[in-house]
Write a structure and sequence with these properties.
Strand content: 15-25%
Low-confidence stretches: 1-23, 99-138
Radius of gyration: 24 Å
Shape: globular
Oligomer: single chain
Mean pLDDT: 77
Helix content: 25-40%
Number of helices: 13
């Protein structure tokens, strides 16, 4: 029996076109949902044609099949099979007519007691006239709201979109189709934020993040190849096979473990702010990383965001640069949204997921522990909770704590983490929690016994124009400029 959940969606597929203005599908896509099991393949079958089975794809990935071989009015179905046991299900209870939307086929496939039961979402809306997405029509439709409600079903109750969330998504769509400037979009989105409702905006995506009592719900738009597409994730806590979804970093982690070397993630704000704030952040983070590395050789992994295109500086950059100063191994896991502005000279790198946040389970999965630097936002909170969910070790470094509050306990959705005012104390606490050298060696695959030779290019340090530092940085990392020695000079007098 196939025990997997599949969802097919794109934003244009939420709008049925009726009458003479109807168009044929261009593709059918399957998204392997978070609670799916195994590796899937998909196939499209019509009366006179069948596509090849797609390449295998994993949880969190999407696979599409072009429908350019079909004519208007042709019927087709989509089949999905679990590659591990070859069981196949028909992911549509009825044949789909190839005249519904110009972008992609859409139907919802949900796990049921008897396996996977699929239903065509558009099937119940044949009599509702909707307009195509266009610059002149950027408001959310009733059908889009209903589809969001289906996609972002919380663990216990169906979480309806609030009027604020609907307005946020209106702003998101206007920004991505070009009718609203980034500055105006930011101003409007910021004004709508609440403690449990945040947003993330990039050139090709807008996400809304809602915190529930025990989870995080993500939904939004990203720019697809032919249209805006819809993303919805009802839970942040996704189980992944790291060796399948991030093979390069996983292979290096196996080699590191075989040598008894743990991998530590450096997490925190990607855009710290003023040059003064950046200087202080570099001192704090470098002191913590130096303490770790000088007491036990570790490798460092980050989300890979460089900040060159936005001329910003954050902990993802500090984690990379200080690791280079220390000559430590560097690893990066980044989504497609971050490819063009990510570190290049790393020892291992994988691209996983489309949007920021998709990469979090994989990034955490290749880590043995993490240091999280305050102040951080809601997106970093997801990373902390994911670390706890995956039973990984994590400490928070917060130099903003009061002097009489050297160590605090922070309650998260998935447990308690300790927050330390002193970065050296935090590093020492993490060192005590990391797996022992012999335990790591025992856990590594038996056919891995040594680290690969490091390419000279991978050991290089990359620089980028950073206008607020350009007069003094020269051919140096900002971390080595501020921390002229290893270890970094003391943060506290």
């Amino acid at each position: 029996m196939l025990k997997a959940c599949f969802v097919l969606f794109s934003i244009a597929t939420l709008m049925c076109l009726i009458g003479s203005n109807a168009y044929a599908f261009s593709k059918a896509c399957v998204y392997l949902q978070a609670d799916s099991v195994g590796t899937a393949q998909m196939q499209v079958v019509s009366d006179n044609w069948a596509s090849r089975w797609s390449v295998p794809f994993e949880v969190g990935q999407t696979q599409c099949v072009s429908l350019d071989k079909l004519n208007d009015e042709d019927h087709f179905v989509v089949q999905v099979k679990d590659k591990s046991n070859q069981n196949t299900v028909l992911c549509a209870p009825h044949r789909i007519v190839n005249v519904e939307t110009p972008i992609s086929a859409v139907f919802i496939a949900n796990e049921a007691a008897q396996g996977v039961r699929c239903s065509n979402f558009n099937g119940s809306q044949k009599n509702i006239l909707q307009a195509k997405i266009s610059v002149a029509n950027v408001r959310l439709t009733v059908e889009e709201i209903n589809q969001f409600n289906d996609l972002i079903e919380a663990p216990e109750v169906n979480v309806k979109l609030s009027s604020v969330e609907q307005e946020m998504l209106d702003v998101a769509k206007q920004y991505l189709v070009g009718t609203l400037s980034k500055k105006s979009a930011l101003e409007r989105l910021i004004s709508m934020e609440t403690q449990t409702l945040k947003f993330a905006l990039d050139s090709d995506q807008v996400q809304v993040l809602r915190e529930t009592l025990d989870d995080y719900v993500r939904f939004g738009f990203f720019r697809g190849s032919a249209s805006l597409e819809l993303m919805g994730q009802p839970s942040a806590f996704v189980e992944l096979n790291d060796k399948s979804v991030v093979p390069n970093t996983s292979a290096l982690v196996d080699s590191l473990h075989a040598n008894g070397t743990p991998v530590v993630a450096v997490l925190g704000k990607a855009r710290i702010g003023s040059p003064e704030a950046v200087r202080e952040a570099i001192k704090v983070a470098s002191k913590a990383m130096d303490t770790l590395y000088l007491n036990r050789e570790v490798a460092f992994v980050t989300g890979g965001y460089k900040g060159a295109l936005d001329d910003v500086y954050g902990y993802t950059r500090i984690g990379y640069e200080r690791a280079k100063d220390l000559e430590a191994y560097t690893l990066v896991v980044v989504p497609e949204a971050g490819i063009n502005d990510s570190h290049q000279f790393v020892d291992a790198k994988d691209v996983y997921g489309k949007m920021w946040g998709d990469d979090t389970p994989a990034l955490v999965g290749v880590s043995d522990g993490a240091m999280v630097f305050a102040w951080y936002g809601s997106w970093t909170k997801i990373e902390i909770d994911t670390l706890l969910h995956q039973k990984k070790k994590v400490v928070v470094v917060n130099p903003f704590q009061k002097e009489d509050e050297q160590i605090l306990e922070i309650k998260m959705k998935k447990g308690i983490v300790k927050s330390y005012r002193n970065p050296e104390v935090a590093a020492q606490a993490l060192l005590k929690q990391l797996p022992a050298k012999e335990a790591l060696k025992a856990s590594a695959p038996k056919d891995v016994d040594r680290l690969p030779l490091r390419d000279d290019a991978l050991s290089e340090v990359e620089y980028f124009p950073f206008s607020r530092w350009s007069k003094e940085s020269g051919e140096q990392t900002a971390t080595s400029l501020i921390c002229r020695t290893v270890p970094c000079e003391s943060v506290y007098p």
